Amino acid sequence: MIDENIAILLSAYELLDIMKKIFGGCHRCLKYYLLNDKAQISLTEKSVSGNFSHVNFEESNRRDEEEIDIEVVKDTIDNRKNIQFGQMINFLNTFAEIGGFDAIIAFLKLGNETQEDKMPLDLISLIVSPFRTCNSIFSETFAKSFITQVKDIVSQRLQTMTEKEIKEIDKESVSLVLKSLKDFLTLALSEQETA
């Protein structure tokens, strides 16, 4: 690759898929957490999770794979039910510590500044998808702030769509993007606010 920015952009799909898996969007990763979970590392001022210091994550480790019903794990992911693992919380807080959430907001804003640089809607959906299973981990304050910022950026993006974009956009793609964004927005907003 000659241009470093192009190389980063091309690897974005892979990186976001890895993040989605680490943050509880993959039954294989949840299976790993069920077998090998560790305690939450102490919180810092940049932590985005609630305080789970009272939870003994290692106590709930399964002894072997036979104890894990993979269909229940998949259902847990689909319904985003109480996905709380110490290592997952540590990964999420580390991501925040190194500026990951700030970078996401900056990237979304940058991708919507000018008419020529508009970010495709499916890319916005892809960027927020790793966090849709974090509803029981994010602190209420962080969730409200992060979700509101993303909502404002996406709303502006939708409101500034050109006639040409609207005519050329794949309608099925739009419905998938809107469903994904609604799932994401429910991390901090009520059903009425996301309707």
What does this structure look like?
The protein is an all-alpha fold and 195 residues long. It contains 10 helices and no strands. The radius of gyration is 18 Å and the shape is globular. 23% of the residues are buried.
Please tag this protein with its features.
mainly alpha; 195 residues; 10 helices; globular
Number of strands: 0
Helix-residue proportion:
55-70%
Separate helix tally: 10
Q: Shape, please?
A: globular
* Radius of gyration of CA atoms, rounded to a whole number: 18 Å
Mean pLDDT: 83
Distance between the termini: 43 Å
Largest sheet: none
Structural class: mainly alpha
The ordered string of helix (H) and strand (E) elements is: HHHHHHHHHH
Strand portion, in percent?
A: under 5%
Overall tally of domains? 1
Low-pLDDT residue spans = none
Short description:
With 195 residues, the chain is an all-alpha fold.
Lay out the secondary structure.
Elements: H1 4-25, H2 27-36, H3 70-79, H4 86-97, H5 100-110, H6 121-128, H7 140-159, H8 163-168, H9 171-185, H10 191-194
Helix pairs in contact: 1-2, 5-7, 6-9
